[in-house]
């Protein structure tokens, strides 16, 4: 993009940024656009308000850029980004095989599973591919699946399951809430479900689902039903005890709390899930996403044996290895606590501003993101550029029923854990100042 | 991996490298392991024989490493690797949207299509995902597909088509050859095929298929039959005229001649192919690989409009943008000519060594790789470490009928185009010396 001259008067500057905003862009698929301000023309940003550059010569120095505080992709650590530019290696050379194998083993620790029957998968793809893994491999056409409806992403999971022939029952909660245990128990007692799916954090609403009691309920009421978790916006920032909670599958992606650039589908399946795969009456309904094809490959990599089905991305796997090494260098409990503390601080600041969250019940609120209703007088095309001017990028809404009414603030990974960055404080201050610039005053 | 002490005597050094080789690793899926020597312990490599490090402070300096001359991934340019560590951006921010849009437009130029009905796709995934795109979107269950059998990769394409319900007829050629036009004409006249698939270069044999005459034949004999090309090992190193040759689909990957790290499925489809998608009687048989879901997203990105179905990888797309910008900075004809010249030089050197190629007919030989039969007295576990000692990494065999009998030498991208690297000369010299070390003398 050509460099644009910076106008001197703020209104013109605001207008210059606004030109890049969503109102100019027709939405191609309903509710499918995440609206965000321009992140290109950093000349418009006050230099003191964008994050400091690392001065370490051994790290990949990131040029000045707006701080990405959307619910993924997040800001990345220098060492992780440096791993992305790893020199070329063969995907079956022992060095890379060892790196991939260690990465898979570290995923076991991140998801807190020591059961040798648990099986991690890392594939080139996005978080969405995890839905296909479950739908094409662990459910057979005509089998019933109960989807707990929390928003845009549980709807997507339901759509994906239906594509592969599952008979989907979606138990939908009101916007900002989640299905409650008694109604889930009722649904489970009415029909025999092959599986139940739950979106741990629905990125469209910031609603956190409760897994431990849910899984206990399923085991009590319908013990053969497999419990599958969409952990795209929860893994590495929310407590998740794969073994203790008796989960059968968790699918996630690289670019959220794990803190590795996008491009990897990451998942963990239980021995029960692998049995469901192996006892299918029909072959898996996908080739690239066939867990039968990938299972021996993943097992071999973890055993440090080269193996080939389709070429993985050595660079992304190196970056994931670096990210997981960093995560596991400290107790996970500390990581989750830090995310909770920061989340509490943000949610208090939001309340102090007189704003409401999409998820009103504190027990239902995610700790890696906050979905915030805007004051009625403030519109997304005003507030996001106002934040961008202050070096902070939030996301607009994505849930179809409230899409224009709220914004989303992601707080995961280095922005939460590395206090020296000052990301969170700057974001809270930007939100206060931005709302004020948009004419909002707390009642 | 722990650093290993370098033994002083060459036999022990050879043995140290050999420990990392394939014989220690059981093959998990038949013929599915590409055998390669260790690329980790560079302390074993004479420093003068590994490629020089760039001294430019603006580039990502690559540490000393063995030169990867396998048929993908290839060696990457410094600027491409630098793009991999791009700071975090939103996947729907205008800056990234512009980069992605330009990338899609550049793919049109690379594939030589100016027909506005042609549609490029760039998805997170591997080259294999391209097979799923065709099989799940452009063929409906029960439809007949003629697969031209050239080796391991055409067999894989056939398997993938069958997973989604295509009725596959595979017209297999002898190892090292390709189906001939008269037999293809006969097959096309016997049945009405929805599509024909051809592997432009089968990476398992180094066989190059002829597309222009093939496509003309299909148009003459069976004009409604769609022509789909697996271009994973051909795009950006072999002449490919999408419009002129009236192709309906070309699927490829990032990590071969395009010269961008692995992790992207890259494809181009004709207006006829898109019509086949839009007129399906059944919905696409995949969710993540649904071209109906991705079509508006790709169109919006190219029109510089943010759009969301699943999160792309900004870092990989930046690297692809850099790679394509470099490719298109010079005439494509020059690029193809350079690959042909280098290939001719390598094939002459192979013949001068008294060795035979898997593809004996010069017209059938790829220009981005050479599959070389080993002398009967030389085994893969001897020659690959001997090459590795000399800083050069070749691949072992992968075609099931000849898997232990040949090696593969990839010559694509910067190793061919940047003479200052000396990669090709060093590889030819290493092959000569390595064979000699293994006791081979030309008869």
Automatic annotation (TrEMBL), chains A, B:
UniProt modified residues of type N6-(pyridoxal phosphate)lysine: 256
Binding site for substrate: 408
Nucleotidyltransferase keyword on record: no
Example of a GO biological process term: glycine biosynthetic process, by transamination of glyoxylate
GO cellular component: peroxisome
Keyword GTP-binding recorded: no
Domain Aminotransferase class V residue range list: 96-399
InterPro entries reported in the protein's UniProt record: Aminotrans_V_dom, PyrdxlP-dep_Trfase, PyrdxlP-dep_Trfase_major, PyrdxlP-dep_Trfase_small, SP_NH2Trfase/AEP_transaminase
E.C. numbers: 2.6.1.44
Swiss-Prot/TrEMBL keywords: Aminotransferase, Pyridoxal phosphate, Transferase
Pfam family, one: Aminotran_5
Enzyme class of the recorded protein, top EC level: transferase
Cofactor dependency: pyridoxal 5'-phosphate
Gene Ontology molecular function: any one: alanine-glyoxylate transaminase activity
Annotated family: Belongs to the class-V pyridoxal-phosphate-dependent aminotransferase family.
Name by which UniProt lists this protein: alanine--glyoxylate transaminase
Taxonomic source organism: Lasiosphaeria miniovina
